[in-house]
Amino acid sequence: MSDEIRRAVGVLAPGGVVEVRALADGATHSGYFDDHEALARAVEALDADPAVAGIYVTLNTVNPSLLARRANRIKMRLSRKDATTADADILGRRWLPVDIDPVRPSGVSSTDAEHAAALDAAGRIAAYLTEQGFPEPLRADSGNGAHLLYRIDLANDEAATEVVKGVLATLDALFSNDTITVDTANYNAARIWKLYGTMSRKGDSTPERPHRRAKVLSVPPEMEIVPLERLRHLAELLPKDEPPKKSSGIDLARWLAEHGLAVRSTRPWQGGTLYVLDECPFSGAHKDGAFAIQFANGAIFAGCHHQSCGGGAQRWPELRAMYEPKPTRKQEETPTPPPDEYHDRALAILQHGDPLAFLLDTFNKTHVGDRTVAESLAMSIASQSVENTNGLHVAISGNSGKGKTHACTTMQNLIPEAYRLKGTVSDKALYYDDDLQAGTVLLFDDVALSDDLQEVLKSATTNFREPIEHRTLTTERKLRVCTIPARCVWWLAKVEDMGDDQVMNRMLTVWIDDSVEQDKRVLAHMKEREAAGRDPADDDILVARAIWEAVKEETLPVWIPFARRIEFSTTQNRRNPGMLFDLIKCHARLFYLQRDRDEDGAVVAREEDFWAAAKLYSALSGAAGGQETKLTKNEAAALATVARMGVEVFTVRGLQSALGLSYQKTRRILQGYVSRGTTYSGLLEKCPAISLYDASVTEDGGAGITVRRREQFFTFDNEVYRAWSGGTFVWLDDDPDVDSNDSRFQQSDSSCCQRENARKGDHSKDAPQHEDIHPYDHTHVQQNEGTESTHEATRSDDGGARVSDVAVTQHENVPDHEQNRETSQVLRPLIDSTCCQRAETCCHSPPPVNPRDSIALPVAKDEPCHVCGRRPTSSVKRGGGGEYLCYDCLTKAKRPAKVQPLPGVLDHRTFERVKTELGRCDVCGAKKAIYRSREVQTNICDQCYARLVREWNRGEGVR
């Protein structure tokens, strides 16, 4: 044995220092040697220890200074502070190591058949490398597999590492199969190698899987050095970059099967799939060597690694021509559409049309209705191409069989195939799917999200712009870093809750339309399709895919220059404003060819992007989704049913009867449930209007027997529910950069009649003037039958007129809280100043404006504002009627005025102290509001609240 060891060391490390490293059960032994005799004696002693699994040496030239670590001796059981040879300790590369291992379970020795398969594969690889211009290698038996060692002379630098890494990757791609593998991990400079002449002990030695001694099989008379150009040629043999995609639309796996080309093995390659063919179709002189690759973009590369077959050159056109029949004369005469037809149509739509409307219309050719669902999914796809976003992910809820899955798959069909993941997938499979690429749409259809999958989703949404890495050990105890690519969006479709609150807060929450009217529309669509006998034409679908291909070509930042002007009616959920900003960016990104760019190349969003995003955001917070409340469709329907019932107390059975659902399902909606260790919240946790209490119920059991039982009762506060579920709306405030003296925002304070004339557009000199009426230092009380109205006029800071008013209207048979609610409707700015009775003949108060009654126009309209008469206008009243509003009047209507309430108007008992941010006091406008009344929708500060209490104590607050 000593002779075999000396021979091996003399070949592997003919001069200089070499490290010996032995791996035992839970321990590492190591020493440095420049004395081969001492090395042989030390190794013999180690090899006699049955606990030592293998003995290894460094292959490449080691820094001689390392001898001082453990000079010509072995230190047993190294501690953590005992260093071994690192890559930086290697002075130069001397060997190219090729390790061929048989495929077998980890931790065991190979069988004789597996061992022989590895030696046979080594012969094939050596023959191929000889054909590539490589000299004869050192051939060896590792004990379980086979070794090939080629002499090289390279520096220890990054370029040399990439060359060695590329060579091993090429050999792995061409020769690894389900029987043997070429180890690609042997590219680092400090790699240790089996010392021939020693025993390989993997697991226990059995007759079927015995321990074997590693040995040198053959050494050439002269070890020639492999030329660097041969190494580079082999490392670059297979294409690393995707070729330009052709318009063939071929599925390579199906094409090979249809034409009888057997595939020996498949493996991921550069985002695509590499197929190693069983026989070479290009030559009869050899069988092995042929391969074909389909890249992620659909492009195909085919060739053979033998020099006689092109040495890896592209031969796919030739291969296709060999197996596909030539077109007939009729086929040749039939004109085919140019390959760029769909791209040209898509480009025209992106440049001059409405790409979003086209995508939604194409969606509705297959899936009827659910326009809000489709727009949410489209914005989610667009978010993948916005640089400065955390992505938009969609959660769709609705009853079973109402079209959630169909809506998602229909929208998926509009994007290129490479960007959609088909079928279900587990959390671990996501990491191990090598075909998954950046910008993929992941659909989870009625899948209960495990805790691990929820954590993956949270990580994917938080680190949207970066891949998610997962480090694990393979069966061979080698480190593997698995990743989920960046910019993947998640679509969740489920009847009930998707997951915990942290998951739902990251999603656009939208409901499928499961109404009776939608059922009728779907049925009519199905009848039409069956009567036509065919599906809708694919032309628009291909154009839609071309639109997404164009959008996905680059990731662009989007700038919202008017972001400071965006106002929200509520900001309790801090993630929702970010989602609105992302919706604006995504809409602008989809219209990027119709938007300006700044000096850094960012797409500049317009106000029309805001209005489009605001419309979708409002729909998601209203009738089409639970963005603010995070309710599913069934939960929202349950709350609406209770509100319509008009009850303050109900039971599960009572609600079950009204909903028509099972008792168990109704109970789960109210109280939530636990499934597979995951807790799903119910309405008790989500909605503050519902509470629960237990009570004892006494019933007559008959025959004079009284039965007592426990019953759960739910209370429902309709006022709290209306305030909580009132939805949210957003608007654009006045531009803060505009000077307050700008004529667009300043009203004349000469007289109320002048303002009214300006509103009507009458600028004649004959218009009546009332110079004797001062615009801001008088108060008048108007008495009407059954109505008392008080107006207080105060001077504003800028000298203009500002009205601070509360109108108190008393009606017979109207409860106090209803009067308070009416009071809340007038806590809004009155346009212009009050008018005295003397001027009533020529000056009328502008009509009241409710912002919720107005719909934003996509573009400004040249119509007069029905309040001030100015043009153009930006919104119109719902339901028609031709009442248009300009931007200024709509903005003023959205701002509550500062009011001084009259005694009896506000009841301190309806206010409660809250911890949420309420803004400034609605009464004084000076201090921070900390009390809120849901009944009159008013927020006040502590001083105003104290005044209400004092007035009540004095008896002034009692009617």
Automatic annotation (TrEMBL):
Record-linked InterPro entries: P-loop_NTPase
Extent of Polar residues compositional bias: 743-754
Gene3D superfamilies, sorted: P-loop containing nucleotide triphosphate hydrolases (3.40.50.300)
Record field: compositional bias (Basic and acidic residues): 756-780, 788-800
Spans annotated as Disordered: 740-801
Protein name: Uncharacterized protein
